[in-house]
Design goal:
- It is built from five helices and five strands.
- By secondary structure, the protein is an alpha+beta fold.
- The protein has one domain (2-102).
- The strands form two sheets. A three-stranded antiparallel sheet has the order 3-4-5, with no helix packed on it.
- Helix 1 packs across helix 3.
- The two termini are 28 Å apart.
Length: 103
């Protein structure tokens, strides 16, 4: 779930899996898979960032639970997004990078 703000200022939580499309014209309009349309105050890029961060958090949580114990301290040092990006990349060299090279 991501937190968004309706046009009238009311905060709401939205299941991001229900978003079918997003348009900026100039207000941000989200069309859900059931055809419902929502207009929110956030910019389209902010909605995208929130969806990606939420999904990265989910992926990182699952990965931490499935990873070997020796990977847990390193995973805890990364933000959810960084950890998810490293998992998605599948690049073993990234897993070996010193902490100061990640930034």
């Amino acid at each position: 779930m991501i937190e968004l703000t309706r046009l009238n200022g009311t905060p709401m939580l939205l299941n991001s899996d229900l978003i079918k499309t997003g348009e900026a014209s100039p207000d941000t309009m989200l069309t859900l898979i059931n055809g419902e349309k929502l207009i929110v105050r956030e910019q389209l890029s902010d909605v995208l960032d929130r969806v990606l961060a939420y999904r990265a958090t989910l992926l990182a949580t699952v990965a931490r639970r499935l990873s070997p114990n020796d990977a847990l301290p390193r995973a805890a040092a990364l933000t959810s997004v960084e950890f998810a990006e490293e998992l998605i990349s599948g690049d073993p060299s990234k897993a070996q990078r010193p902490e100061d090279e990640r930034r």
